[in-house]
Amino acid sequence: MENYLLDWANLLLRWVHVITAIAWVGSSFYFVFLDSSLTPPEDEDLKKQGVSGELWAVHGGGFYHPVKFAVSPPELPKHLHWFYWESYSTWLSGFALFTLSYLWSAGTYLIDKSRMDWAPPAAIGAALAFLVVFWLLYDGICRIFGQKKNGDAIVGGLVLVLVCIASWLACHLFAGRAAFLLVGAMIATSMSANVFFWIIPGQRTVVRQIRTGQNVDPIHGKRGKQRSVHNTYFTLPVIFAMLSNHYSFTWSHPQNWLVLIIMMFAGAAIRQFFVMRHGYKLGRNPNPLPYALVGVVALVGAIVWMRPAPVPAPAPVAAAKPATVAAPAASSASTASQAAPAAAAPAAAGGGSDFAAVQTVLEQRCYLCHGAQVQMKNMRLDSPALVKQHAQAVYQQAVVQKLMPMNNATQMTDAERALIGRWFQDGAKVP
User: Fold this and answer.
1) What's the pTM?
2) Is the pLDDT of residue 322 over 80?
3) Measured between alpha carbons, how far is 229 from 196 in angstroms, rounded to an integer?
4) Buried (b) or exposed (e) across 90-118, using 16+ Cβ within 10 A?
5) Could you give the count of Cα atoms lying within 13 Å of 301 in the half-sphere of its Cβ?
6) Spatial CB neighbours of 50, under 8 Å, sequence gap ≥ 6
7) Which of 94, 98, 97 lies closest to 192 in space, CA to CA?
8) How many CB atoms lie within 10 A of CB 269?
9) C-alpha–C-alpha distance, residues 34 and 28, integer Å
């Protein structure tokens, strides 16, 4: 019953998280587009009111005419729409989902003993520290360098270095799947913190100054805009990190930290293209196509670099012997083949964690899709080194979730799953 309720909680939280994330990303992308597409007003009355930019758009059978005031409008309306619950709801639902999926079962999903053999409380504390420490360092970089000459470039470079360090650390401390998600959650936490600590407080200050008749300090708008721009560049890297848990060939790669960095860099570069393309159409900046090309080159480079190893040529087959001699051998081989799964069961029942027994199970149940001839999901398990590399994924998919083999097509038994589970819990040791 507990697992049943946890599955429902996971499904509903994931549903809410995706919905709120769509709302947040959608509004963020729209306002970035709006700022990039505004043109100086032509109407003299709008100029007198302090309008710095306007846009005419058509959508859903109607015409829209949004305008932007340089610092503040002459007066504020009674109803002013705020954009912040999209961000807060996304973070709250995401953190709840992360807690339910990873922190609640830290020993299964957060910890990979072949990387770091530590107690679940310590791993949970370290994971939470990633969220907090990254925000503090990122915020400090923005405070110190953000308003200086070439501040945007300096902040961008330092944040890139910070993300690379965090990605390397996460992938060496946690299970690969959890590490990717943790880096995404780390960046997403800073995005929501930008809204909570900077963007909304700055806007509230401006509103208060307008309503009390004070002179509006433009620094609040500048800081809010800076953090908002950071958020839009963070978006595609975060989305990749969140989607990567479905593709084990990314987070189970031996250099998974480098895979994560390359993919996030490609996402940020491609996002730069979309941010600048509107200004390019208006003649405000050069053609941003090179940014998109850099992102695509990074993606293609990752695909080529991570391609599966060539399948070795099959060993030569010995000449067939006369049927009268071969019959007993064939019978013996058939008997051995049929006995192999059964041989694994006693090992499981006895509580052993011998890799040879695990390898026998993998040969019988997994090589069909993850062997020399076929590597589904770019995963190959026909050598001790490869099994070690993919141990976390094998454990999660075959033992915890029982999703593999697909539809249990090769009839893996519960005893065999238990054998793999004990082997993994003992440290996933291979010869």
Assistant:
1) 0.79
2) no
3) 15
4) bbbbbbbbbeebbbbebebbbbbbbbeeb
5) 13
6) 69, 70, 71, 72, 73, 74
7) 94
8) 22
9) 10
Q: pLDDT tens digits for 115-169?
A: 888 999 999 999 999 999 999 999 999 999 988 899 899 999 999 999 999 999 9
Tracing tokens 């007003």 back to the chain, one arrives at 41
Q: What are phi and psi of 67, to 5 degrees?
A: -130, 155
Provide the greatest CA pair distance for the chain: 106
**Alpha carbon distance 179, 242 (integer Å):** 11
> Residue 391, exposed/middle/buried by CB under 10 A (0-12, 13-18, 19+)?
buried
DSSP states of 233-247 as a string? Answer: HHHHHHHHHHHGGG-
> What one-letter code names the amino acid at 9?
A
List residues bridging with 54 in a β-sheet. Answer: 39, 67
Residue 16 burial (CB count, 10 A): 17
Q: Is 69 helix (H, G, I), strand (E, B) or coil?
A: strand
Model confidence pLDDT, tens digit, residues 324-366 = 444 333 333 333 333 344 344 444 444 445 889 999 999 999 9
* Rounded Cα–Cα distance for residues 244 and 182 (Å): 11
